[in-house]
Amino acid sequence: MTLNHDYGTPAEGTTDWHVPLNENFASIDADVEVRDTEDALSQYAPNEGAKFFAVDTGRRYLGNGTDWVDIPSHSPSETTLPRETEDPADAPVGALWYRTDVDEVRARLDSGVVTLAGGPAPKTNDAKTHVTFDGDAWRSAFTGIKDDHNDTVSAPSQSGRALRVQLYEGERTGANMHFRFADNWSRRPDTVHARYWLYLGENWGLGTHDKPWDVNGGKLPGFADLTHGSAHGGGSVDDSWSTRGSFRPPKSGGDTRLGWYSYLPGKDGGYGSSDDWNENGEIRFGQWYRIDQYVEVNDVGSSNGVLRAWVDGKLAYEDTSVRFRTMDSVAVGEWWLDVFMGGGWTPGNDMALYIDDVQLWENQQL
């Protein structure tokens, strides 16, 4: 006998070998599925156990010895998620929804909103640098880590652990961490695309000592080249520049409006200038957002530098006429993970934000 179908295999010397052979043909006629167009079904005998597949309609039939019996098809059960273009503020813990604008499935947990699946894929998955916060490798990627302000936690997190940056009441600086390209890439490039996930805690920005928070704001991660100068804190921009992210008052119903805070050649006054992003840069506390930033320094003598930003894959800022440098020795020196309150004001309460999954490329990804 054969192992799978019990077909007879006559032993050597068998005289009536035709008997098991004919039995095998009868079994094969039932075991092997007949494939033809559905209008040819009547041309085939509905032997007990015989199978027929209609190649033009996809329907299947099973013979019962007298007739062909239609076998109902069973489609997998479907679960339809609510389709949203923004995270519902009143979603209960455990709720799921599909964000059509960023192609992501999200859920509300006790710790806040998290992304479970999806999201537009980058043009290449081969980031030149990919920093996670699951182990200790991130400590060797950045300089300027403040252990009493910068640690990792398991929640809220996109996956694994996330970097927690704490701002304490009365203090301005939560993080002053530098990913320097000369140290990590052996050179300073002219173009960089940075991607990271940002979560502002529910207690973020509730007030300051001397002014309401919504008058002021502060700094977030961005780009700089401080190799030859100090384009921050009122410093010189003749031989350096910086364009950090910022958080400022909301304009269209969110909790804060993201933007840039820049020190660039030709700036007026002693400090930097603020440029709010568009409505796509309006975000809420207690939710994860994917932030993409792209910088391309200008040709010396021209104002053709590029600065772009996206939130959850949607363009939030674009300027293609930026002058970052006046000399060839200036490039993109670092991705500056800066978290700072002020100006001259400080938080009125302890607060925290979270950063996860930092990726850096040398070419634009969106």
From TrEMBL:
Please, which domain of life does this record's source organism belong to? Archaea
- Start and end of every Polysaccharide lyase domain? 215-355
Region Disordered: start-end pairs: 70-89, 234-253
> Could you tell me which Pfam families the record lists for this protein?
Polysacc_lyase_14
UniProt cross-references to InterPro entries, sorted A to Z = Polysacc_lyase_14 (IPR048958)
Q: Which PANTHER family match?
A: DISAGGREGATASE RELATED REPEAT PROTEIN (PTHR40124:SF1), PTHR40124
The protein, known as: Polysaccharide lyase 14 domain-containing protein
Q: From what organism does this protein derive?
A: Halopelagius inordinatus
